[in-house]
Amino acid sequence: FWPRGRRGWGLALVVVWFFFGGLGHFVLAETFVSVVPGYVPFPREAVALSGAAEIAGALALLVPRLRRAAGLALLALVVCVTPVHVDMLLQADRYESIPAWALWARLAFQPVFAWIVWTA
């Protein structure tokens, strides 16, 4: 049911990351809406939809026969939200409470996290 070793730890990280991240889209909805780039229509709905997709994807990872499809969908989601990180970095003055190094680190972590999702 559950992979062992490094793959198992990666899978656990991905499940926890997306499940609680997805919940955050609802609990901290205003915070998430505030970082949606201006070119994205219906930001509130986009946040809710992406949060629901994260939760559904995390739960689907727990079902072995759905794991591959869920992993690919979540990998696509990681790629799709990368422009948000780029936009936040380009407009860092809007996010004075977040240090510039954190915005850079977050963007730099995207390919690492994509690799973790892919390998898990």
Query: What fraction of the residues are assigned to beta strands by DSSP?
Result: under 5%
Shape: globular
From the helix content, strand content and strand pairing, which structural class follows? mainly alpha
Counting DSSP E segments of at least 2 residues, the number of strands comes to 0
User: How much is the average pLDDT?
Assistant: 93
Oligomer: single chain
What does this molecule look like?
- The protein is mainly α.
- Helix content is 77%, strand content 0%.
- It is built from 5 helices and no strands.
- It has helices at residues 5-27, 29-34, 43-61, 67-90, 100-119.
- The radius of gyration is 15 Å and the shape is globular.
- It starts with a helix and ends with a helix.
- The mean pLDDT is 93.
Secondary-structure blueprint of this entry?
Blueprint: H1 5-27, H2 29-34, H3 43-61, H4 67-90, H5 100-119
Helix pairs in contact: 1-3, 3-4, 4-5
What key attributes describe this structure?
about 120 residues; mainly alpha
Q: What does this entry show, briefly?
A:
With 120 residues, the protein is an all-alpha fold. It has five helices and no strands. It is globular and about 45 Å long.
